[in-house]
Write the structure tokens for this entry.
Amino acid sequence: MRNVLAVAGKEMRAYFHSPIAYLVITVYTLLCGYFFYSFTAVFVVQTFRMQTMGGYGGPPPMNLNEMIMRPLLEGILTVVLLLLVPLITMRLYAEEKRSGTIELLLTSPLTDLEIILGKFLGALGLYAILVALTFGYFSVLFIYGNPNAKPLLAYALGFFLFGGALLALGMWFSTFTKNQIIAGSISLAVFLLLYVLDWGTAYSTSRWAQTLSSLALTPHFENFAKGVIDLGDVIYYLSVIGLGIFFTARSVEALKGRP
Amino acid sequence: MIEVENLTKRYGPTVAVADVSFTVQKGEILGFLGPNGAGKTTTMRVITGFLPPTDGKVRVAGYDVVDEPLEAKRRTGYLPEAPPVYPDMRVDEYLAFVARIKGLARREIKPRLDEVTEKCAIGDVRRRQIGKLSRGYRQRVGLAQALIHNPEVLVLDEPTAGLDPKQIIETRQLIKALAGQHTVVLSTHILPEAAKTCQRVVVINEGKVVAVGAPEELTRRLQGYGTVLLTVEGPAAEILDRLQRVSGVNWVEPRESSDQHVTYEIHSEKGQDVRSELARAVVESRWKLFELKSSGLSLEDIFLKLTTKDLSEEGVSSQ
């Protein structure tokens, strides 16, 4: 366990020693902030309109959760993450291969799994900062309004699981090459394909489309965005994370077959 | 301390290392000598647990590198050809990280760090980013990381590559000082280095062990293939004829000539010292003898001979 933490710590430090962490955090904050502002502005305008309309025994209370938090998470951030996670994961193994430090790791008394988990945790650590920033925005709503706090756990869990799945896959892709750019590009391409897959089958009702939809990453987030923790969704994401880690391990083993 | 038994490593159809066996005793410094592509790095990578062997067994400090990798790796320090450093880490951060993953307890890290930075003379650059260091310093940081957990076994792949002469001498002295306390295997194709630093040498070529022994011993064993250089003044054709008739002489060939005298290179049978016979032949024929010397084999010559086809086929590899 201490080995896992040692590697995780090294990855976190490495992120902040390079522009990557700052780049990712800045871009995320800007995008998140912009969309948060948009949704909140729409919400405010709608509220005024409802109030001026009056009638029918008063307007139905506007739901902050449904009008701001959910669309932000579901509609926007899942897409933003598809683009940003490759930036986080691309260096995980590619950089080690390029600089030769993979030899250091593989000749030290660490198991391959300890290295993989450590790297995953390090990436998750940077990702956690993004999650925290998002909730920072949400907290503004709590200060000025009265949103429902109960779905927050679902939001956070879903957010972490979704991100974890992307991070695990991205980590696997970064074992393919010494070149970070290529690793990042592969991740980006795969994530976009998976996203489009879902998008394309969203309006179709054929059996084929339904199956594909259930394999894609984004649909399983819907429940979390609604505040619902569905065991099926949890298992789905955990499985993807598990697969990502498993394939990373196989890929690392294959590395040892050739110098 | 290190036992390599019938090690074979294949990458698909290519055989990088074929049936290599040797042992390294505790406290010894063993040199691994061979041309580029001979299989030195591959063998070292198997010893350090980076690559699994295709066949054969390797044991470090009694632990099999395949069956008990963690135990073996804990006792091994490895400096690959390119020091495995993270360019964006500071020297002290990096060494602390290595110390942690090598299994040092938290409180041991700082004292070991201090010791090793002093030993490797990197105290000045402790707080500098590794990426900004010169090659010499980077190599020393690499050596420091190999030493930080005080391993019983040290595997060094071309430890003086890219260093300037002063640094080479310092590194060599450092390595020699490590013998006894540590068991060292170092690979090199700088032959004088092997001769000066190592107590024993394993010569490897095209994946196979070609010779094993102490540098002087190898020289002695191969001395019979040595040549004698004879500088004589006299009638050329007669000299050639007479010299060739000396018993034990294989062939005679004129090399240089200046003024009246010619230098002949004389090859003799293995183990036969023909110098006195040659001298007698020259003196009896009343020719003028200017110089007679044994052109002993340098390690370079041994290396070249061993790594060209003819000699290795004649089975010099006996132990």
Notes: Residues 19-53 of chain A form the longest helix (35 residues). Chain A touches chain B at residues 2-3, 6-7, 9-10, 13-14, 17-18, 99-111, 256-259 (CB under 8 Å). The two ends of chain A are 28 Å apart (CA to CA). Residues 241 and 253 of chain A are 19 Å apart (CA to CA).
